[in-house]
């Protein structure tokens, strides 16, 4: 299959499962989507897309994590977790690539209030 045809047919996105051991047990970072975005009002793992063909998934994850949550992730702390192929409610094919991040620096906060209104 022609790669450009594939990329136009499938929406690929990248999620990070930010999980670490906290004082009270495991902690998972989630955010609530807001505004005029896909599934507004739903809690989800922070996610994003590549900025272009020059950006790999780990670089994108590090960049988007800082932009969306204010925390800093070392690329060495990123591990591939699972890939999921599914359909959106409208029936469009989507491919999600999930990564686990077990360490980060900083305190998570809402950095893009136009698309996220809470973090937990």
TrEMBL record:
UniProt source species: Streptomyces brasiliensis
Protein name: Nudix hydrolase domain-containing protein
Domain of life according to the entry: Bacteria
All copies of domain Nudix hydrolase, residue ranges: 9-120
First and last residue of the signal peptide: none
